[in-house]
Amino acid sequence: MSDNPFLIVLVAMVGGALRVSTPFMFVALGECLTEKSGRVNLGLEGTLVLGAMCAYAISFHTGSPWLGVLAAGGAGAWLGAIHGYVCKLPRVNDIAIGIAMMLFGTGVAFFFGKAYIQPSAPRLGSFSLGGWTGSPQIETALEVNALLIVGVATALLMAWAFANTKWGLIVRMSGDSAPAARAMGVSVDLVRFFSTTAGGFLAGIGGAFLSLYYPGSWNQGLSSGQGLMAVALVIFARWDPVRCVLAALLFGAAGAIGPALQSVGITQGYYFFNAAPYILTLIIMTISAGSKRAMRDVPGELSITK
Amino acid sequence: MVDVAESLIVTAIGPPKDRWIDFSVRFRTGAEYVVIPLFALALSGLLFALFLLVLGKSPTQFFELVVRGGFGTAFSIQNTLQRSAPLILTALAVAVPARIGLVMIGGEGALVLGGFASAVIAIPLVMGKASPAVTLIVMASAGIVTGALWVGIAGILRHARGVNETISSLLLTYIGIAVMNFFVEGSLRDLTNPNKPSTMPIGEAYMMGKITGTEVHWGLAVGILLAITLHILLSRTTFGFAVRLSGGNPRAALAQGLPVGKLVVGCCLIAGACAGIAGFFEVAAIQGRANASLAAGYGFTGILVSFLARHNPLAIIPVAILFGGIVASGGLVQRRMDMPDATVLVLQGLTFVVLLTSETLYGRFKIFQVKGAVDRT
Known about the structure:
The complex is a heterodimer of chains A (306) and B (377). Chain A has a single domain (5-297), classed as Orthogonal Bundle (ABC transporter involved in vitamin B12 uptake, BtuC). Helix content of chain A is 72%, strand content 1%. Chain A is built from 13 helices and two strands; from the N terminus they run H-H-H-H-E-H-E-H-H-H-H-H-H-H-H. In chain A, strands 1-2 form a two-stranded antiparallel ribbon. In chain A, helix 2 runs antiparallel to helix 3, helix 2 runs parallel beside helix 4 and helix 3 runs antiparallel to helix 4 (94-113). Chain A is globular and about 65 Å long. Chain B has 377 residues and is an all-alpha fold. Chain B has a domain at 86-317. Chain B is 73% helix and 0% strand. Chain B has 14 helices and no strands. Chain B is globular. Chain B starts with a helix and ends in a 20-residue tail after the last helix. Classes of the chains: A mainly alpha (306), B mainly alpha (377). The A-B interface holds A 42, 46, 82, 86, 89-93, 95-97, 99-101, 103-111, 114, 225, 228, 231-232, 268-272, 274-275, 278-279, 281-282, 285-286, 289-290, 304-305 and B 103, 105, 157, 161-164, 166-168, 170-172, 174-175, 178-179, 181-182, 185-186, 300, 303, 307, 339-343, 345-350, 352-353, 355-357, 359-360, 362.
C-alpha cells in the first residue's frame, strides 16, 4: 500500500466506520423501535453508559464477554422499562424524563463503575472482512466484531417485522394514531412500554460494544454522545431500520475523521471534530424539521414533531 | 365620592368575608404546588436512603454529613452560598423559557461560553492596564451577550424551524463546551501554565471582590436580585402576562395578535443572559481564568432546581441554596463514607426522575380542589 495520505485517511475512515458504527447502529435501532410506537426516549445516552459498565463488570467477573453483552442488554431494558412505565402516567413529559434518565443512568454507571476502571476484562473477539486483499493494513482496518453482524440482522428483522407481522402493525399503529389503536382494542401504553424496554435492551448492547470491543475498556469518558445522537440518527433515517444501519455507518465515518486525520499528522482541531457529531445532529434536525419528506414518515404521535 | 369608590371595590372583590374565603381558596390551591414537590423530594431522599442501605452504608450518616458539610458551620454556609449563586442563575435560565412552554436545558453551555467570553475579552484589557471597574463591566457584558446568543440560537431554531428546543439546547451545550476546549487547548492557551490548559489569568487586581464581611462573591446578590426582578417581570407586567398566555395556549395567543415568536426568542435571550452572568462570576470571582472547571455541572443541577421550584423565580432561591449545600457537602461525604464522586449524580438523577414523575399527581387530590377556583398554573 502506498503512503498516499489520502488513501490512508480513506482506509482509516472505512475501517473507522465499521468499527465505530456498531454502537450508533444499536442505539438507533432501539430509538427507532421506541419512536415507532410513538414515544421518544432521550435517555439512551445513560443506557449506553450503564450498558458499557455492566458488560465490562460482568465480563470481568464471569470471564465471558457474551454474558456481559446480555447483562448490558438487561441493564438497558431496566432503564427502558422505568422510562416506559413513568411516561404512561398523565402529564409526564417523555423528553424531560429522558434527560433525567440520562443523568440517572450515567450516575449509576459511574457510581458502580469506579471499581472497574483499573482491571482488564476479557473482550469480544473479531474477524476480518479484508482477508482476500492480502494487504495486512486493509485486513486490520476491516476487522469487524460479531455484534456488527447481529446489528445488521436485527435491522433486517425489524424492517421485515414492521412490514409483515401483526406485532409490527400494532407498534406502527400505536405510533401513528393512539385513538385508532385504542379503537382496535390495543393497549397503547403496554405497546409503548414494551417498545421502550426492547429499545433500551438494544441500546444497552450498543454500550457493551463500547467497553468490550472498541475502544475496549471502561472509563467515564467512554461514550462520546452516541446515545444523544440516536434521536437525530432516527430522524435522518426517517424511521426505517435499514436506513438506520446506513446512517450509523455514515455517522461512524464522520466520527472517524478526527482520529484518521490525526494518524497522518493533522492534530489541529481535535476538539472541533469531537463536536462534529453534535453539530451534524443539530443540522439534520434543523433541515428535517421543515422537510416534507421527513414529515411524511414521522410517526404521528411523536412529541418532538408536535 | 368616597362611598362610590368603596362600593365599587366591594362589588369588585366582594365583601370582607368573601375575601377571606378567596384567601383560603388560593391557599388550598397553592398548597398543591408546595406539598407535591416536597413529597417528591422526601420520596427521593427515601429511595436514596434505601440505595445506601443496600450498599451497606448508613443513610443517617449521609444526611448528617450533608447537613454538616452544607450548613453546619459559618464556613460551610458561605461555601454553600458561593455554590448557590450559579445555581440560582442557571435555574432562572430554565424557568423563564419554561413560562412560555419551552423545556430549555442549555444553561450549562451558556454558562461555559459566557465565562469563556468574559475571560478572553479581559486579556487585552488586562494587558493594556485598563481600570478594573471598566474591565469587569466589559467582561460581564461579554458574558451576558454570549450566553444570550447561545440559548437564543435554540430559541430561533424553535421559532423559525420548529426544532425541538430541548434536544437542540442540549446539543448546543456540548458544542459550547467543545468550542471552549478548542480554544483553551489551542490558540488561547496560557503557555506559562503547564498544569491545566487555561486561558491567561486575569490577575488578582482584576478579580471581583467579595460581599463585605463574607467569603461569598457578588454573584449571589446579583442572582437574588435577578430572581426578584424576573418574578416581577413575569407576574406583574404585560410582558409577563403575554409570556404566560403564549405558554398556556400559543394558538390563542397568536389569535390575540401576540408576537409569540418574538416572545419565545426574547425569553431564550433572557435565559441565556442569566446563565452567561453565572459564567462571568465563575471566571471573575472564583477561577480567574477559563478552563474545563467551568463545565462543573451547575447548568444541569440548575435544571433540577428550576423544576423543583416549579419555575417560580422566587422559589428558586431557597431550592438553589438547598442544592448548593448538597453540592458543597459532596467532598466531605465522599471522604468520610468512602463513596465515589458520582454519588451526587445518582442522587440528582433519582430526584429528577421522581420529581418529573410527581407531575402526574397534580389535580388528583380532592383536598386541593376547590369548586369554582381558578386554575393558577
